[in-house]
Design a protein that fits this description.
This is Ankyrin repeat and protein kinase domain-containing protein 1 (Protein kinase PKK2) (Sugen kinase 288) (SgK288) (X-kinase). About 45% of the residues lie in helices and about 5% in strands. It is an alpha/beta fold.
């Protein structure tokens, strides 16, 4: 008897109907022309002038794809009423562009986290930057800055530019994150990659990039430090735009319509392309993107006809109805079905964080311990991830408690992303607390031997660090190892470094090896060392070759361009004359690198600048916490 094909889902049928034309799925509208500056003119700039002045001088070009490629620059303002009053930030971008477009750099390398978590990710040939003329979009000279206050009922040109951000990002071939360590003595602030990640507008720009055609971006931390980031887990704990920091409270309201329109358009585009896996991820991630915007219950449900399709809708209880609508919108026939992306309905429900939905799926015999079978780069999660790990990763606490009550495994088994590891990467103190209260072992290591505390330090998730210290009383934690781990990834803020040093971490430790975090990481290090010796050098191979053989915390900070952490280490007495087994000192890693003045001064014998930067950074951290 021939096998019958499964019935075509309403999702698949609707997707087919959109293939001819769907106006709502077309590109985001550009309400204000995309004003850019040709890269040759940008490289000649010596001061930062506003949009109106550059326009009057004829230096602005309305970008069209026929002209070449555009690069969108996301950055934080390092002045009060001016983005870059001392031209420090722009000078770094100029130098980085010259370096990237020179013949000496062949590829923009993957950042360390992406290289470790996504082995299939590729670096970017720098030839892509020079194959066409390049035009730069930067808010201060691309958006109106000096316009009069609009009359009641009028829309300002600036508001049109804000609503056009998704269109500007979509029109750009490259997305740069400009986030060097900048000290502003007048504001008594230190700006860094971690402060960029907290800004609401920067988060919106990052969301536009993630929801575009090319989800990768180029991070510029220093003139010769360019890193290609392809993994959301590598974006320094950056959360949803609505939970970011805004200078003006009313700016948060401006984000909501931009983001909801963008999400709807992207969902329809994915349906048109019949990319059902990416569609399911985004459909259920809407609640994450919209957190902090007061838009509860406003998630878009694209597939029409649910009420007409389900004939016995009136006979169902609310939970059963919720489950049926979820399966309908996601194109699943049963709760036990697994899609091409290796995920099951419970995983997508965990992504949405709907505790009632999870309860309903469990009531229909969904396995609370089912794991994904493939990695999901769109959310930065590896294979063998459980629904519980997904819940805590996205800070869905009611859903987390629901799965814990259903006896979901707290250990996660043999996997990279255990529930506790997921909680600390998300900087979720509440997630750590819920798991530990349910008797999750805080010292348990994951598949490659990484412990939760060390992972929290590696990612710089300070709230998770403090909660683990509270839950363990500091017992069984190696503070020196944690300090070194914080400097191998992107966790090296002055706040965390100082905290670990106060807990007796050794500022001049030279015993760190890649076997310490675990056997699995040691094997990875062996492979990266061999790769480095054979000439295939990456940021990760360089770090493992130099950092794990007598490297000090200061050397690790210099290798990973964590200059705020380096300043703190020097202020706390780090030795500058120590050598690793390769014969290198920390100063050698700065040779030929345009490092900040406070570090240059330290290497010449004066630590005053490092002490000042550290003091300011710590003072800012205390205010934020």
């Amino acid at each position: 008897m021939p096998c019958q094909s499964p019935p075509v889902s309403a999702l698949a049928s609707y997707a087919r109907s959109l293939r001819t034309r769907c106006p709502e799925a077309e590109a985001s509208p550009m309400l204000l022309p995309m004003y850019t500056v040709p890269v040759r003119d940008l490289l000649d700039m010596a001061e930062m002038e506003p949009h109106e002045e550059l326009k009057a001088k004829g230096l602005l070009v309305v970008f069209q794809r026929s002209l070449g490629n555009a690069a969108f620059v996301s950055h934080q303002w390092v002045g009060h009423e001016h983005p870059d009053p001392e031209f420090k930030q722009m000078r770094v971008l100029q130098a980085a562009l010259k370096y990237a477009m020179s013949s000496s750099l062949k590829h923009i390398p993957l950042d360390i986290v992406t290289e470790l978590l996504l082995p299939g990710a590729k670096d970017m040939p720098t030839s892509e930057l020079v194959e066409k003329d390049l035009f730069i979009w930067y808010d201060y000279f691309s958006c109106p800055q000096l316009e009069r206050k609009p009359k009641e009922g009028e829309r300002s040109e600036l508001s049109k530019a804000i609503e056009s951000i998704p269109a500007y990002v979509a029109a750009s071939a490259f997305f740069f994150v400009l986030c060097p360590v900048i000290e502003n003595e007048h504001l008594s602030k230190v700006f860094s990659p971690s402060t960029w990640a907290q800004r609401g507008w920067c988060r919106l720009e990052r969301a536009c990039c993630e929801l575009g055609q090319n989800q990768s971006w180029i991070m510029v931390k220093a003139p010769t430090s360019l890193e290609l980031i392809s993994c959301p887990s590598a974006s320094m704990g950056s959360g949803p735009p609505g939970q970011g920091e805004f200078s003006l409270a009313e700016d948060r309201k401006k984000v909501a319509p931009v983001l909801t329109t963008l999400l709807k358009r992207k969902l329809l585009q994915l349906l048109q392309a019949q990319d059902f896996v990416s569609y399911r991820v985004l459909l259920n991630q809407q609640s994450v993107y919209l957190k902090g915007l007061g838009l509860h219950g406003s998630c878009y449900k694209p597939v029409p006809g649910f009420e007409e399709k389900i004939t016995n809708l009136e006979e169902m209880d609310s939970t059963s109805c919720l489950v049926e609508e979820f399966l309908y919108q996601n194109g699943f026939n049963t709760v036990g079905q697994r899609d091409a992306g290796g995920w099951m309905p419970l995983h997508y429900a965990a992504l949405s964080g709907d505790s009632s939905l999870i309860h309903g799926l469990l009531a229909k015999r969904a396995n609370p311990n089912c794991k994904t079978t493939k990695d999901q780069p769109l959310v930065g999660l590896p294979p063998l991830t459980s629904a519980l790990s997904i819940c805590v990763f996205f800070r869905h606490y009611e859903a987390t408690q629901c799965l814990i009550s259903a006896r979901a495994s707290l250990s996660g088994g043999s996997t990279l992303c255990t529930p506790l590891i997921a909680a600390v990467i998300a900087d979720s103190a509440e997630g750590v607390r819920l798991l530990c209260q349910a008797r999750c072992d805080p010292h348990r290591r994951n598949l490659v031997g990484a412990a939760a505390f060390d992972t929290a330090c590696a990612h710089g998730t300070i709230h998770a660090v403090e909660e683990l210290l509270l839950q363990t009383g500091g017992r069984g934690l190696d503070m020196t190892l944690a300090l070194n781990e914080s400097l191998t990834h992107h966790g090296g803020s002055a706040e965390l470094v100082k905290r670990l040093l106060d807990l007796r971490a050794d500022v001049n430790d030279q015993t760190f090896t890649w076997w310490k975090p675990g056997f699995g990481m040691g094997l990875i290090a062996m492979q990266k060392n061999l790769q480095h010796k054979c000439g295939k050098r990456t940021l990760c191979s360089k770090l493992m070759y130099h950092g794990g053989h007598g490297g000090t915390p200061l050397m690790l900070a210099m290798l990973t361009y964590q200059y705020e952490a380096a300043a703190c280490l020097i202020a706390e007495g780090a030795r500058l004359d120590s050598r690793n087994s390769r014969g290198w000192t920390a100063k050698d890693f700065a040779a030929g690198q345009p490092v900040p003045d406070f570090l240059l001064e330290a290497f010449e014998g004066s630590s005053e600048g490092c002490c000042r930067v550290t003091s300011i950074a710590l003072r800012n951290a205390c205010v934020e916490l």
